[in-house]
Every structure is written in C-alpha cells, then in structure tokens.
Amino acid sequence: MAAAAAAAPGALGTLQAGRARLVAACCARLGPGWRLPGSVTGPRVAPAVWARGWTPAAGGGSAPRRGYSSEVKTEDELRVRYLEEENRGIVVLGINRAYAKNTFSKSLVKMLSKAVDALKSDKKVRTIIVRSEVPGIFCAGADLKERVKMNPSEVGPFVSKIRAVIDEIANLPVPTIAAIDGLALGGGLELALACDIRVAASSAKMGLVETKLAIIPGGGGTQRLPRAIGMSLAKELIFSARVLDGQEAKAVGLISHVLEQNQEGDAAYRKALDLAREFLPQGPVAVRVAKLAINQGMEVDLVTGLAIEEACYAQTIPTKDRLEGLLAFKEKRPPRYKGE
C-alpha cells in the first residue's frame, strides 16, 4: 500500500505531463511562437496565425490571394467556385467526373490536393461546401477501372494519396459541409465523413462497401465512422457493407439533415448553402478556433480538452473582432467582422 501511495504522485505527474504535451501540440496548430496559459507553461503571446487563416506558403513567401467570382477556377473534373455578393466567403468544390461516377482517379486526387492547399491559406474563405456537379452521384469511391490496371505495388501508395487528400480536407481550418445529393460509396462516404457537417437527400445512398471487394476502407472510414455513429454500429455497417438511404443515415446520426430531393436534384446542396449562410455573420477567428478546440478536444480526455479550450479561447481575447462584437452590441447594430 505504501509503495502504491508513493508511486501515485509520480503517475499523476506523468499524466499531467502527457496532457501538457497534448495541449502544446494543439497550440502548435494555432501558430508559431504561441504559448499555453501561464498556469501551464508560460505567458500568452501573439494571436493565432492559424486561426486567422494564414499558413506559410512553400518557400516562405506569402500565399497569393484569390479573387472572388462565380467562374470555374480549375479543370473540369473539379470545379472550384468562389461565390459572390451575400454568399461571399463561401467556396464550392464541385466534383465533375460524370463518365466515371465521380470516382477518385489519380488526376482528381491531384486536383483536389492542389485546390485544398490553396483554400487553407486563403483568409477570405469562410466555409467550404463539397458537392457533386453530376446528378444522382456524390462520389462512388476509387476508380476501379483505373485501379485494375495498377500493379500491386502501386495500389498502396495510391490509397495513401487518397487518404492524405481526405485528411487535408478534414484539417481545413474553416467549416466544411458535404452536400450528398446522390451515391456516396466507399471513398465517397469517407470524403463526406472528413467534412464537419453532412446533409443528404432522402434518395441518396451511403455506405462503406469495401468488404465486398475483400478489402477495408482505406481513406479513414474505419476511424471516422465509429467517431460519428459509435463503434458497434460502425462495425455492423462495415462488416455487412450495408448501404443506407438518407432517412436511415439521419436515424443513425451519420448526417445532420435529410431533405426530400427536388426536381433539380440539388436539395442537399441548397441546404448546405443555407447552413453556410448562417456561419457567415459570425466572427471568422472565433469559428476557426472553435473548430480547432472541438476537433482536438474530442481526441483527448475531458481535463485535457478543457485545457485546449482555454488555450483556444485565449486567442480570441486580443482580436479586433472581439472588440467590434462588444461595440456592435452596445450600439445595437450588426457587427462588421474582418477576421482580425
């Protein structure tokens, strides 16, 4: 007993040190030079660079700013639209491989990675919607016609590239919404699972069906599906390769909203736009930091998560937006946030 009691302080110290490391890792995401609150490791310093939307460009230079227009910004297989007027700040990623059911090809993965890399460093981007430009299809997973031509040695690295681009989408600093107006199977559902919010038409079909092909989900599905709907049900769906419609997906918590499909076939996209418009008036720094606090906090115990929240909250205190919010409240007018 005495030995156990003597060991307890050391074990507690190890646990606290581990928590401090986890929170420090989270703060590293907030930007270089930042510190935890003084009670943990030291004084607070400059506001979060990450939270304000900048990341260092390759070579140390400034990332180029993008203009905002409704025009297509990249090749036809991936259409990137920067919305205008009252929707300014919303960016739409539209997959457009109709002949291949929007499946992940080498070229599409490369285009997605390039687009996401530009978006994460654009401080004017407030919300990103991932959708399909092809009626009835969201994304049917990997391009199996391309896959069958690969040597076995090529398959693993290609799946790693798909996983990497899905991870990049999951790590975007702004809210992301998957608008599922059609089929989302395999990697297509994994893409949707990487988004913060999922909305779907009732006619949409969703499932991780890889076990039918004697493989397992390789784009994060075995990890994100249990986190979304619970371990037991995720196992059931993956083991059976079951496909759910929109109503069933809503019932198990896989999606947040289900809509009856409209004649245009874009009911989920319209709902995603409505949600994105709700996010636009809020403080941009606050939304980014809230996303970071939630994402990081869900991966740790409650005590560590609360420390992460404290660290993130501290980043909003020195911002101009916080002062603008208080002034707008005092003057009884809508705030004019600038993300500063």
From TrEMBL:
InterPro entries: ClpP/crotonase-like_dom_sf (IPR029045), Enoyl-CoA_hyd/isom_CS (IPR018376), Enoyl-CoA_hydra/iso (IPR001753), Enoyl-CoA_hydra_C (IPR014748). GO terms for biological process: fatty acid beta-oxidation. It is found in: Mitochondrion. GO terms for molecular function: enoyl-CoA hydratase activity; methylglutaconyl-CoA hydratase activity; mRNA 3'-UTR binding. The keyword Cell division does not apply. Its main location: mitochondrion. One of its GO terms (cellular component) is mitochondrion. The keyword Transport does not apply. Keywords: Acetylation, Lyase, Mitochondrion, Transit peptide. Belongs to the enoyl-CoA hydratase/isomerase family. This is AU RNA binding methylglutaconyl-CoA hydratase. The lineage of its organism: Eukaryota, Metazoa, Chordata, Craniata, Vertebrata.
